[in-house]
Design brief:
By secondary structure, the chain is of the alpha+beta class. The chain is built from 21 helices and 23 strands.
Length: 492
């Protein structure tokens, strides 16, 4: 069913390709946008039409809301899908889209603002019966902020109100370190987000990061699609996610999902969103934040519910409602996702660059590969390091894990360093395999997961063997015509 005649996708890479594929399946014309650096990127070729964006800085072009809206109007698009990142949680952009007479495939601007402010969203959650960790804000405490923060008890977590990705976040374990770390957090928050406000909350040691996928129609009608486990993180950023969360008691699952629905319903949330929680070893959980967009890890939810979340987003944006009742949603099997990134895990996860010379993709039962890369594409520092996602589904977690390992082993990206081997070591760790997870997992088992000492000659031989298995590489390497043949017929 075509909810719109034409939709512009205000994004790039993997998520742009993913949205465009759903648009194509639904018979909706798709429009890609691109900076010159992306002119040969897969999302441009996949779309029905493409519009070039002006901009000296590549990422800046995708953040130019006025230019994107002008492109949508000029090409006749009825709606704009923001994907994730870039403008997806920009309330001003959502307002500007609506003011231009277009549909923003996402929540209303006022809800984006509410949930984008960690202090306001925590207060809102608490007011509607959603558990929040003991905390204090600068606004409430004023000059007594340090003293009132200390009164909560240590360890403490200082967090930026407008923060994310670990920026403006400090762990404080001793009273004498509190004032200094508050100052450092405020400085980071001001630099990264233009908002120096911070708050202090009790630190939950070795927590699990559990999030709930919700869908709302904007009238208070909200359903959940169960939870995801997102505890495997490096530098506060997720790299492995799964659904449902392993070893989560049924009663606790019901309480967490109910809290997420209560929050989203109170906010009259519209479209797809995710409510995130911290879960302690004692079974107590606390509201962390709400992401007002499609999440990177949405495929694991799709694979256990058989729903296309982009299709549901479009349905809601078109005013046709969610299309499902809570009792319709069932969990079938288990799914795990790995984020494949251009980075060097054994050198502090520093981002890597290069040109993809060989790309071998996995296939098989239960395997899904969401990517936006091709050979010989250049990987530059202009954008986020994530290249693609590998998702595996199985009737149970063990089956999903076995398929995931086979999929990772069958994936090859040559020309740029990636975290593929690192991911294999993580999912192969015995503690991961039994599902005993928390956000400190990668640090605690860093020595176990580190790359083994290897033989450089063996590594080179393995790389050459992989390359020689690729027909395109063989043609380039050995299909060179002898000099006389390349001259042409005139030589006679």
């Amino acid at each position: 069913m075509a909810f719109f005649n034409k939709v512009l996708v205000a994004n790039r890479g993997e998520i742009a390709c993913r949205v465009i594929r759903t648009l194509r399946r639904l018979g909706i014309a798709s429009v890609a946008v691109y900076h010159d650096e992306d002119r040969k990127a897969p999302h441009v070729g996949l779309a029905d039409e493409a519009v070039r964006l002006e901009g000296k800085v590549p990422s800046g072009a995708y953040l130019d809301g006025a230019q994107i809206i002008a492109a949508a109007k000029a090409i006749g698009a009825a709606a704009i899908h923001p994907g994730y990142g870039f403008l997806s949680e920009n309330a001003g952009f959502a307002e500007a889209v609506a003011a231009a007479g277009l549909i923003f495939v996402g929540p209303h601007a006022e809800v984006i603002r509410l949930m984008g402010d960690k202090i306001r969203s925590r207060d809102f959650a608490a007011a509607h019966g959603v558990p929040v960790a003991p905390s204090v804000t600068e606004d409430d405490a004023g000059e007594d902020f340090v003293a009132k923060a200390a009164a909560i008890g240590f360890p403490l977590l200082i967090k930026a109100s407008a923060g994310g990705g670990g920026k403006g976040m400090k762990i404080v374990r001793k009273p004498e370190e509190l004032a200094e770390n508050i100052g450092l957090a405020k400085g980071e928050a001001g630099r990264y987000f233009g908002d120096p406000r911070v708050f202090a909350e009790r630190l939950v040691e070795q927590p699990r990061h559990i999030e709930v996928q919700v869908l709302g129609d904007g009238t208070g009608n909200v359903i959940h699609l169960y939870e995801r486990e997102c505890s495997i993180q490096r530098r506060y950023q997720k790299i492995i996610e799964e659904a449902p969360a392993p070893n989560l008691p049924a009663g606790l699952r019901e309480r967490i999902c109910a809290a997420a629905v209560r929050l989203a319903s109170a906010a009259q949330y519209r479209n797809a969103g995710t409510v995130e929680f911290i879960l302690g070893a004692d079974g107590e959980f606390y509201f962390l934040e709400m992401n007002t967009r499609l999440q990177v890890e949405h495929p694991v939810t799709e694979m256990i519910t058989s729903l296309d979340l982009v299709e549901v987003q479009l349905r809601i944006a078109a005013g046709q409602g969610i299309g499902h009742a809570q009792e319709d949603i069932r969990i079938t099997g288990h799914a795990i996702e790995c984020r494949i990134c251009a980075e060097e895990p054994d050198h502090g996860f520093r981002p890597a660059t290069g040109r993809i010379g060989l790309l071998a993709l996995p296939s098989g039962e239960g395997i899904r590969f969401d990517g936006g890369i091709v050979a010989p594409q250049a990987v530059t520092p202009a954008f986020d390091s994530m290249l693609a996602k590998l998702i595996a589904w199985g009737e149970d977690r063990d089956t999903a894990l076995a398929r995931l390992e086979r999929g990772l082993a069958a994936t090859a990206v040559m020309g740029v360093p990636t975290n593929l081997d690192y991911l294999l070591r993580v999912v192969g760790h015995p503690v991961f395999r039994v599902g005993t997870l928390d956000t400190g997992f990668l640090e605690r088992f860093a020595a176990d997961i580190a790359a083994p000492d290897g033989d450089d000659e063996t590594a080179i031989a393995a790389a050459l063997a992989a390359a020689l298995g690729d027909p395109l590489f063989r043609d380039l390497a050995f299909g060179v015509p002898e000099p006389h043949a390349s001259i042409g017929g005139w030589r006679n």
